[in-house]
Sequence to fold (347 residues):
Amino acid sequence: MRALTVDQPGHPPALSVKEVPVPQPGPEEVLIRVVGCGFCHHDMLVMSGTLRRGVAPGVILGHEIAGVVEQTGGQVTGLNAGDSVVSILTNACGRCDRCQGGQEHRCRSGVGVGHGRNGGFAEYVAVSEFSLIQVADGTDLISAALLACPIGVALQAAQDVAQIKPGETVVVTGAGGGLGVHAVQAAAALGARVLAVTSSPEKLGSLAPLGGEEILHTEELDFSEMVLALTEDEGAAVVLDTVGSPLFPSAWRSLAQFGRLVLLGEVAGHRVELNLAEIIFRDARVQGASGVSRASVRQAAEMASRGELKPIVCRTFALEEAEAAFALLASRQTLGRLVFTPGAGPI
Fold:
């Protein structure tokens, strides 16, 4: 099968498409013919060499997988050849306390798909049955590649971690990116007033139809000042930060008393300074959110089918176009997600 490999991390990285063996599914695994696999910022950080921790040597990247079941292992009971499926981001066991408690994304023996084990930037990928969610026949699998990450990740962070309530003001940073544009929609779907922050002037006008009041952040115009102005100096009840350290000071200044700052992304890996007394006297909560459970993916699929959440696919690429995809994602000009389409036929 054809698979995208990272021959040398860098900016730009050395990438190539190589012929590698089709993976053989284990007893509890399913072989998936990949129809679409989203190109996440996580993948770009690995390609550039910024993210190294836990990355398996020579791993095939890609964790936003949608495809068709090709083969099943002997102990697989819930899926059959021809079923349409999407994956969560972790190869989960299905037996530990976390899996049984609906926290499959934090499986005690789980391995990151496209991180610790091979992922979906290939024609085929083998994933545990417990890490797959069946979707309806006829589902657009290019759009469905986004149901777990970024849509399910954003929904879970907004609903379960931030616990957004109707009428609350929510700030979303990086609102034009693949995660941010879906976080805007998730917060709006939960009834929030959403202030969508972008540093890309060309993306203004694209976020309002998705439920966000648009705010431009530049070196001259700190978005926290606009948030305070738009909330009568009270600040936002929730900040969903998809950017991390570059915008953390502004995100923190945007937070209201009793506010919840939820960190979903870190694009630079820089340290930040925070006076602990400020957390205490603001009665604030700062929390991380990553991954997505099976339940959140199912909910995302249901909401997408009702039109409450819309997968935003910016553009599709063949595996052989990976260098162009990397350059486009690195330019920060994309609205929504890029998706690779390996284009394999049945075995």
Notes: Residues 147-161 form the longest helix (15 residues). The radius of gyration is 20 Å. Residues 151-288 form a domain with the Quinone Oxidoreductase; Chain A, domain 1 fold (CATH 3.90.180.10). The chain has two domains: 2-146+311-340, 151-288.
